[in-house]
Specification:
Shape: elongated
Length: 184
């Protein structure tokens, strides 16, 4: 089993050899504008999958696929001669679906951009449903921002006296509870 680095280097070299071979030595009239996009070599270096694209319509793609299959032996011989590996990998040509996928993603992004533009157009004249600032703020009394004032609010004194009233109510409830227990 070869290491992954060697497989990557061999794939890059095969890509270069096949692209040059298609351009220089293959004279098949069925061969259109072929571009080698990627080569993947198996871990044992016995099989190479060559991804390609063809500029043109479906007829040109089909004709180029037939031309590449017929030129596979010549290209494999050239790969074996120029790489010098013990076992020349078998070549498999696969039409690359990446350009079609990229075109589909571009179309989806255009639809999303149009939807965003519609939302932005609706948002331009919109007003908030509630108050302009919906967040609660601490109550300020006569300029006191922290709310610890001993000033009178709504007829009651905030602070010391209000706290004494609460303490007195707790004391009365505690003594009443204590009296009820003592009487039992």
């Amino acid at each position: 089993m070869a290491d992954a680095g060697r497989a990557r280097r061999l794939a890059g070299r095969i890509k270069q050899i096949v692209a040059t071979g298609i351009e220089m030595s293959i004279k098949d009239p069925r061969l259109g504008m072929v571009t080698i996009t990627d080569v993947r070599v198996t871990g044992d270096l016995h099989d190479a999958t060559i991804f390609y694209t063809v500029f043109g319509d479906d007829e040109e793609r089909a004709a180029s696929a037939v031309a590449l299959e017929s030129a596979k032996g010549v290209l494999r011989s050239e790969v074996g001669r120029q790489t010098g590996v013990r076992f020349t990998p078998t070549l498999t040509f696969t039409l690359d679906a990446l350009p079609d996928s990229a075109r589909h993603i571009d179309e989806l992004l255009a639809v999303a951009a149009a939807a965003d533009a519609q939302v932005e157009a609706v948002r331009q004249g919109a007003l908030p449903a509630g108050e302009a600032d919906p967040y609660r703020k601490p109550r300020a009394v006569d300029g006191d921002l922290d709310g610890d004032s001993d000033r009178e609010v709504d007829g009651e004194v905030d602070g010391a006296r209000g706290g004494a009233e609460v303490a007195g109510a707790d004391a009365e409830a505690g003594s009443a509870g204590g009296a009820a227990l003592a009487g039992d």
